[in-house]
Amino acid sequence: MTNMKDKVVIVTGAGSGIGLATAQLFAKEGASVALVDINEPKQQAEELVVAGYNAISICCDVSIEKDVEAMVKKTVDTFGRLDYAYNNAGIQNPVTDTVDLKEAVYDDVMNVNTKGIWLCMKYELLQLIKQGTEGAIVNCSSMGGLIGVPGRSVYHAFKHGVLGLTKSTALEYASKGIRINAVCPGIIETPMVENMLATESDAMDELMKQVPIARLAKAEEVASVVLWLCSSSASYVIGQAISVDGGYTVQ
């Protein structure tokens, strides 16, 4: 039910973590995959090609419009079309009280985490509309897009913003057969979280105490939800924010 043969997918933030796990899963299900990151994930794409899958790597800063436009163009020039996208690229900021946050940090988080999602959707949608085909887009928000946590005001604000973009845009394009949804990962075993565990251990310890399943998630556990949202199995799912957080936001 999730066979992706002859489908083409873009995955941003595919150099590591959830993005890489998602790109690998789509490739294994038969899709041609464009692995996109600000540091071009050449090795990651080459490993998929060596393993017999269809993949390319693209260097793209999702906060820069011309980069995003070029990303979609290269994908289509290479594979002939676009069917799905997982807009995963994002950055974190250190735990900081709102009054202590620097404007430059605010701008960086906004530009990548929210503006970047908007730009990616814009050019992915333009291609899907040009093709006149159905498709699916999944945006990466966070459990921080559903709740508040002290010291995370800016990160959470822009992850909330991703859900606003997702829901409103989903309503605009549902009638064209383009389904847009979001995933809200919790505390996932990724390089970003490993850095947080190393540099913000007290804050992370407190977060982990509130995870009912009492463990970190694997990146593959989020990737499987993204795959499902793009598949025909989720054909009636539109504008939703799917939590993958071990029960954190249920409490």
Give a nutshell description of this structure:
The chain has helices spanning 17-28, 42-50, 65-79, 103-131, 153-173, 191-199, 201-208, 219-230; strands at residues 8-12, 32-37, 55-59, 84-87, 135-140, 178-185, 241-244.
Q: What is the general shape? A: globular
Annotated CATH homologous superfamily = NAD(P)-binding Rossmann-like Domain
How would you state the average pLDDT, rounded? Answer: 94
The helix content is: 40-55%
Major beta sheet summary: 7 strands, parallel
> Might you state the CATH topology name?
Rossmann fold
User: Rg, please?
Assistant: 17 Å
The rounded distance between the terminal residues' Cα atoms is 32 Å
Work out the number of β strands: 7
Task: Kindly name the structural category.
Answer: alpha/beta
β-sheet strand percentage: 15-25%
What does this 3D model show about the protein?
With 251 residues, this protein is α/β, with parallel strands linked by helices. It has one domain: Rossmann fold (3-Layer(aba) Sandwich), CATH 3.40.50. 46% of the residues lie in helices and 15% in strands. The protein contains eight helices and seven strands; from the N terminus they run E-H-E-H-E-H-E-H-E-H-E-H-H-H-E. Strand 4, helix 4 and strand 5 (135-140) form a beta-alpha-beta unit. Helix 1 crosses helix 8 (219-230) and helix 4 packs parallel to helix 5. The chain is globular. 45% of the residues are buried. The model has no long low-confidence stretch (mean pLDDT 94). GO terms for molecular function: oxidoreductase activity.
